[in-house]
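haha ok so turns out i had the wrong file open the whole time. this is the CORRECT one, sorry everyone. sequence first:
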Amino acid sequence: MQVIELKVMEEMFMKKLLAIATLLIGTTFGGFAPSVALAEPQTYTFDPTHTEVIFSYQHLGMSRAYGQFKKVTGNVIMDKTAPAKSSVDVTIDVNSVDTGVKEFDKHLRSKDFFNSAQFPSITFKSTEVQKVSGKKFKVAGDLTIKGKTKPVVLDMTYIIDQPHPLGKFNPKYKDVYVAAFSARTSVKRSDFGMGLFVPMTGDKVDIIIETEMFRQ
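then structure:
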């Protein structure tokens, strides 16, 4: 009887260890459903219809002006068991700039600002991903605008990683996994050779990124 009881206790102990290990794996990157597949690095690409890169700055000391870039490509590799091994690689089409004023968009694409004829893309490549707490992360990387590269840090919030919520209703999204992120950072436009009208118009530019992404 003692041998049987010891064997039962051993089995119960091993099950508890397995459950704890699964829970730790599932929550390392902010809270994921336990899955062997999810323990491996996953690659996500931007959903172009639900990705926004918005910028804002102080205009002549009177109001804040806003604009956005409408074409964004790239990927995020998420390693949920080792977040530091994750990476972000983004390319923005400068010619997709949109402030709602066509003449101003044309000026922004000119040599005075982005010079899109010579530098058609803005790129961001991460160099370090650090978990701060919960679903908060710091993503450091190199931002290249107009041929000039500067280090920046994104304050990123991981929102979800799960089967697409519309999968139950729309066949298009059946078996589709989606992730969502929100990020913020600020840069000085003069650092990238775009200091025209500083300080009359603000040098500091705030950048807001909201995105949904598809797992590949």
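Residues 2-27 form the longest helix (26 residues).
again sry for the mixup
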